[in-house]
């Protein structure tokens, strides 16, 4: 077992690699009542190919398969395993992203039992045809429910402007058509390929003893008899090449027109702390130029050009793709788009970054420290770091190493006012 | 419960000002919540909604939005905000702040908490003004922004459906008034009278302050100084219980929009309120019926029936209202409605296994325990009990929950009366079912 202590945070994490190659991390928080665990499987909506167990046959996977599998894992011969978590007083959640499927549980008592149950959840697959059929119906309803959701529609349309037709631009849950191609057999084969210990990681946070917990997890894993299971092989993920940015237009039952500008980052393929630094640089750039303390935000808010509740930005930075989105509702949508672009042009010419770097850096650093004050946030932070090839406290290192030049560079290599995708959403009726 | 001491030390700082202190060294920040309340009343609710927004716009020394937001960011990402929410028949201005403890920084920053408290003091006592009133340009801008915030509710179809059901249920009762106010009131609201109104509330209405974190010696003195302004000797007495009118038969509201999926909201009334002896049973009933992913509604209507992806029940314990919200296709509306009522009936007849009740009880007890790590949630828990003037600690509430018997849960379920069905769908004819 190895670990790291941060004098800055007054926190320490421990790491042990379990049999089968699964890393297990624990962040100790003495005196806290709640405990939280997150089990991450390296399988997400981007993964649309695999090699079947026992052979060389390559199979293309339909959209939504990882998300479907996430839903299906809750079904066990004895019923829905969520009820067993409830009996322990534990909350259980699952989520599928572009790159991972995560299962999180938290509670105060019986945490060791909940942790064992979490392993049962992912290591005891069960694919009964009638339950698969039922889950297909439920997911179809899930897809339909998000059909009139403004931000959801805007988000995936924005990805489509940058990565037209690629898996990244497809709804993580898939489509009604792709769902029809998913059956129990395919789910089982995906399970064998991706749900292998070497393809997973476990993160825990709370007032717990690392040695005792590591032993408990190790013992329970061996009881689940994972040796000798047939395993398929995953396809290595490729770095996604953005296409020439495009426009998308749609009509939704909303109040005001909505615009989203999408920017593909030219710096991709990073890994480890450099990747964390890139993400941080983009976040700071956006905060300096468009955040609530920025000149743009305050001036445009006073003018009434931006609506505080809807205007915002986000960034998603991984090794295989990286992009930024700036969006909001506006009564004068074309003026909003032009104002954003003009701000980016000006930023390249003047010293906006230098003037506000310190303020934005302090805010980001403070928020990072505060994140480690919550057990559920802590396991997410650890997962974020490790899935990027870094260690949990490397977020601190990234902050300490970050320079103004790295932030300014984002204006040249990502937030280019000459190269952006645009989503236009108009109100119906 | 592990915890031996009470969550907060509670003391009265002055007439109508209550202080709750939780000194604990295990967090990296100190969290402060300040609640100022008034009764929900027409037109006044709009004034208070505007005041909440104006308090974020500037102070005497930080006169504009950029100055305020920059200051907060420079305090190492201190979290600061002013929210206006409705709790039962009350409207509450809620200021909150979380400030990092300087010992976690390697730079000399001075006492961040002290700077934060000074800032909050200025926000409350010295909002940006001109000529004896709020700044007129800020008021004009906030009227526009508030109007937009109200309109934007239309975009989230689930929230919109819930709001419409609530409004339909209210027969001129305060809970039907929005904490965001009504734009039709804007015309009559002026900067000078609004500021006078605000200072009047500040000097007479009940205020509750919660502070939790690495609190230094002398923190009580600090808060005494904070509120050391002229407060009239007799603070306003506000009623503590939201009474409900009798209803006559469920009402049907159908609304057409081009939604991707229908939204069904059922609104029920109960005479049980937070603080009543029956309340713990009601809380357990809500969780059992539709409170979470192991609830009966989830199990029978989603897992077994495949009829919805989203279905849940929610409880407003101060107003005595319960809602069931579901995303449904038009053709499944009737089946979902019957399913919801069937599960309610089953609980009324005590047709649930003891193990089911134990599961939700365990879950609720654990959630209560985990509040110790959630200071925002902890402040909300105690504040709600102070609203009904029935002080109840977490430990006491847990003991009451632990003692609830199955028949009490059934009795709580039996107090429910269906008031309103609201269905938002593509169907222009307006499907009616359940009659």
Describe this structure in words.
The complex is a heterodimer of chains A (429) and B (435). Chain A is α+β, with helices and mostly antiparallel strands. Chain A has helices at residues 65-72, 82-87, 111-123, 129-145, 150-162, 176-180, 184-194, 210-223, 273-290, 295-303, 333-349, 352-371, 375-387, 394-401, 404-413, and strands at 2-6, 11-17, 23-28, 35-41, 49-51, 58-60, 75-76, 79-80, 91-96, 101-107, 200-206, 233-234, 247-252, 258-264, 312-317, 322-329, 421-427. Chain A has a 7-stranded mixed sheet, with helices on both faces. A 5-stranded mixed sheet of chain A has the order 13-17-14-16-15, with helices on both faces. In chain A, a hairpin with a 2-residue loop joins β7 and β8. In chain A, α3 packs parallel to α8 (210-223), α9 (273-290) crosses α12 (352-371) and α9 crosses α15. Chain A is globular, with a radius of gyration of 23 Å. Chain B has helices at 44-54, 65-74, 112-125, 136-152, 157-169, 191-204, 219-226, 279-291, 296-304, 333-348, 354-370, 375-387, 394-402, 406-414, and strands at residues 9-14, 17-23, 29-39, 79-87, 90-100, 129-130, 133-134, 207-213, 251-256, 262-269, 311-316, 321-328, 417-425. A 6-stranded mixed sheet of chain B has the order 1-2-8-3-5-4, with helices on both faces. Chain B has a 5-stranded mixed sheet with strand order 9-13-10-12-11, sandwiched between helices. In chain B, α1 (44-54) packs across α4, α10 (333-348) packs across α14 and α11 packs antiparallel against α13 (394-402). Chains A and B meet through α2, α4, α10 and α12 of A and α2, α4, α9 and α11 of B.
């Amino acid at each position: 077992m190895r670990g790291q202590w941060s004098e800055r945070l007054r926190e320490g994490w421990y790491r042990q690699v379990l049999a089968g190659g699964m890393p297990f991390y624990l962040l100790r928080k003495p005196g806290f009542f709640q405990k939280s665990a997150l089990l991450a499987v390296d399988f997400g909506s981007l993964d649309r190919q695999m090699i079947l167990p026992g052979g060389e046959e390559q199979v293309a996977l339909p959209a939504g398969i990882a998300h479907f599998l996430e839903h299906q894992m809750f079904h066990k011969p004895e019923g829905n395993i969520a009820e067993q978590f409830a009996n322990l007083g534990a909350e259980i959640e699952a989520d599928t992203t572009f790159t991972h499927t995560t299962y999180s549980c938290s509670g105060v008592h019986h945490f060791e039992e909940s942790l064992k149950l979490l392993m049962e959840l992912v290591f005891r697959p069960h694919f009964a045809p009638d339950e698969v059929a039922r889950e297909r119906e439920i997911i179809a309803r899930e897809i339909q429910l998000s059909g009139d959701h403004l931000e959801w529609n805007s988000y995936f349309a924005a990805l489509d402007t940058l990565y037209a037709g690629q898996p990244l631009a497809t709804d993580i849950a898939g489509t009604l058509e792709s769902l029809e191609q998913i059956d129990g057999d395919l789910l089982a084969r995906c399970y064998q390929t991706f749900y292998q210990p070497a393809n997973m990681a476990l993160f825990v946070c709370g007032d717990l003893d690392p040695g005792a917990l590591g032993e408990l997890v190790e013992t329970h894993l061996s009881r689940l008899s994972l040796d000798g299971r047939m395993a398929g092989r995953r396809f290595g993920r490729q770095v996604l090449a953005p296409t020439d940015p495009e426009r998308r237009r749609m009509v939704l039952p909303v109040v005001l027109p909505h615009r989203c500008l999408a920017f593909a980052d030219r710096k991709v393929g990073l890994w480890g702390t450099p990747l964390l630094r890139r993400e941080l640089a983009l976040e700071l750039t956006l905060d300096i130029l468009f955040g609530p303390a920025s000149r743009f935000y305050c001036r445009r808010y006073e003018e009434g050009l931006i609506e505080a509740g809807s205007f915002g930005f986000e960034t998603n930075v991984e090794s295989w793709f990286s992009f930024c989105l700036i969006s909001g509702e506006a009564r004068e949508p074309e003026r909003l788009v032009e104002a954003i672009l003009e701000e980016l042009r000006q930023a390249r010419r003047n010293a906006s970054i230098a003037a506000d770097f310190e303020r934005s850096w302090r805010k980001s650093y403070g928020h990072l420290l505060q994140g480690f004050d919550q057990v559920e946030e802590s396991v997410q932070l650890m997962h974020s770091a490790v899935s990027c090839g870094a260690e949990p406290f490397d977020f601190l290192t990234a902050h300490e190493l970050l320079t103004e030049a790295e932030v300014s560079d984002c204006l040249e290599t990502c937030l280019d006012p000459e190269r952006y995708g645009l989503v236009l959403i108009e109100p119906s009726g | 419960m592990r915890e031996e001491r009470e969550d907060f030390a509670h003391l009265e700082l002055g007439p109508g000002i209550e202080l709750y202190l939780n000194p604990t060294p295990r967090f990296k920040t100190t969290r402060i919540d300040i609640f100022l309340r008034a009764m929900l009343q027409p037109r006044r609710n709009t004034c208070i909604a505007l005041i909440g927004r104006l308090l974020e716009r500037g102070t005497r020394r930080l006169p504009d939005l950029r100055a305020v937001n920059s200051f907060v960011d420079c305090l190492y990402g201190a979290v600061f905000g002013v929210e206006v929410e409705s709790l039962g028949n009350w409207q509450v201005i809620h200021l909150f702040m979380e400030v990092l403890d300087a010992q976690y920084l390697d730079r000399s920053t001075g006492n961040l908490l002290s700077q934060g408290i000074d800032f909050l003091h200025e926000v409350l006592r010295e909002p940006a003004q001109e000529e004896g009133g709020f700044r007129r340009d800020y008021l004009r801008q906030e009227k526009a922004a508030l109007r937009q915030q109200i309109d934007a509710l239309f975009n989230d179809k689930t929230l919109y459906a819930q709001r419409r059901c609530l409004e339909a249920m209210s027969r001129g009762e305060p809970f039907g008034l929005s904490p965001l106010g009504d734009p039709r009131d804007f015309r009559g609201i002026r900067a000078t009278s609004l500021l006078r109104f605000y200072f009047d509330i500040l000097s007479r209405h009940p205020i509750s302050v919660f502070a939790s974190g690495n609190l230094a010696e002398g923190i009580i003195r600090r808060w005494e100084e904070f509120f050391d302004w002229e407060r009239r000797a007799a603070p306003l007495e506000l009623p503590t219980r939201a009474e409900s009118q009798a209803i006559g038969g469920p009402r049907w509201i159908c609304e057409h929009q081009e939604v991707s999926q229908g939204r069904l909201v059922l609104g029920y009334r109960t005479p049980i309120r937070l603080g009543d002896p029956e309340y713990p049973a009601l809380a357990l009933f809500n969780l059992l019926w539709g409170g979470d992913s192991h609830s009966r509604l989830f199990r029978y209507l989603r897992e077994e029936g495949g009829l919805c992806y989203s279905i849940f029940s929610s409880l407003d314990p101060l107003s005595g209202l319960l809602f069931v919200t579901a995303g449904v296709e038009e053709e499944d509306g009737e089946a979902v409605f019957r399913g919801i009522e069937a599960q309610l009936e089953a609980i009324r007849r005590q047709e649930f296994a003891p193990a089911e009740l134990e599961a939700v009880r365990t879950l609720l007890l654990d959630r209560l325990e985990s509040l110790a790590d959630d200071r925002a949630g902890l402040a909300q828990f105690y504040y709600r009990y102070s609203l009904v003037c029935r002080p109840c600690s977490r430990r006491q509430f847990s003991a009451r929950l632990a003692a609830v018997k199955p028949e009490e849960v059934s009795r709580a379920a039996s107090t429910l009366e269906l008031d309103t069905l609201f269905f938002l769908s593509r169907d222009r004819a307006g499907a009616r079912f359940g009659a």
